[in-house]
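Reagents: none. Just compute today. Acyl-CoA synthetase.
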Amino acid sequence: MINRMLTRLDMPQAREYYDAGYWQDQTIYARARVAASCNPDKVAVLERSRTTSYRCLLDAADRLAGHLADAGLQSGDRVAIWLPSRAEVAAALLACSRNGYIACPSLHRDHTVGDIVALAQRMGAKAFIGQPNYGADSDRADIFSRLNEVETLRMHIRLEPAGSNGTLFPDIPADAPDGAPHHDPEAIVYLAFTSGTTGRPKGVMHSSNTLLAPVRALARDWNLDDDMVIYSLSPLSHNLGFGAMLLALTGGGTLVAHDLARGQSVARRIAETGATFVFGVPTHAIDLLTELERGDVVSLPKLKGFRISGAAIPTDVAERLIAVGVVPQSGYGMTEAGSHHYTLPEDDPALIVASSGRPYRGHEARIISGDDASVELPAGTVGQIAGRGPSVMLGYFDDQLSTESAFTSDGWFLTGDLGWADEQGNIHITGRKKDVIIRGGHNIFPAKIENLASRFEAVGRAAAIPIPDKRLGERVCLVVTRAGQSDPAPDALLEFLDQQGLSKYDMPEYLQIVESIPLLPSGKLDKRRLSAQLEAGEITPNPIRFTAAAR
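Predicted 3D structure written out:
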């Protein structure tokens, strides 16, 4: 059997990172403990209904660590965390870091209960922390009624929605675990599931050192100190939001949890909290600017920077942010390697719009040939982006084959993204080798939609392609052929996809019925040609909408 915790850790490389200061002899818990000792009463996490000080956050982490230890968890055991953005996510991560457990908070709202059960089984979770009525099918499925299917599970914690009670994990006894905190910044502390183009989840493994290296770099390059108030509009379960949480809590700052109800004012919340730096995707920036220009909130005097990831920053969005005194940061990163490229505060607006910036100090990037990974391409030439540095993952969980195929023989991580570098080292993203649609920062994998749609009795072939959208970036268009004489009924097709387990967040929003779908010589769907037909107006998809009524 494969050693599930086998990693790529190279000791000579590790020594080099320590010598250069990219890695340090501190765990995530130790970093947060330093912040708590310096200013214990400072607000660590700010929510609409409560504030949590560093003292209370670390107290909760210690109590949770003791509770998990009493349940029999050992170093290296996995803890599944399925929660919205709330202070308990941070406390759970710190508890895992304290005891040497592996936190898996990358379970998203757009997962179904079935998805979560499968992922918990896959990771061999020993503990589960969750909130009822959460997830893509929360209206008809309950995760707690299915936890018995996870045979490795020793215990679970059920949290009610955050209220005005400032105590985190109030039902857990006030007993910290015996012994000193776990101290190995090279040990795996974080497991994040990210899907490949087939939709099969891959578990990305990180240590305290690989997680903290890009956080330290970003804080240094953007002059972010313990006065920072970080507001992530992306959920803490996502790579972008998780990085924002680490930045705030290991640097002694304040994290603002994005827990607004739909329709509530983000601009007003940013103003009320005094947020100094925001993390999000282009859609978030567009919505914020719309609010400001509507006059609901006059200004955001403390907001200085806005990290925008997931897609390129539109020129007009960058210009409008700068006009209200906010410097946009264009960035490039991924779960496997952290936030490894970004623009700097002093960069020209034209560069911010055109590129994803330069690698942080310590991260190396190169553009390689698609035919031969050993060939580095010159500046200005499009190829696959490869990277190497202190924030690159330790490997994929229980998947040595995928780990080996993700790296070149000399240790360069293959991102699967296409782009080119200019003479100054700025990366310009041109496309993706992997087949993925990004809707408002949410990754949607067409292969899963196509496979499910093809099972519908009225569908012959199916292809999911992106339709450009000014606000969200992309939406899903499902192109299908008929299996018989009748057109597939949109509502019936959406209902079928729902019954087959497709998340409502991945549902197609456009449908096009065609006589045939073009194929490549290999027999694969020619999606590039389909997209060209869409752009040329040769096909005109009809909007469709998945609703409860459609079920």
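The CA atoms of residues 145 and 479 lie 37 Å apart.
Action item: order primers for follow-up constructs.
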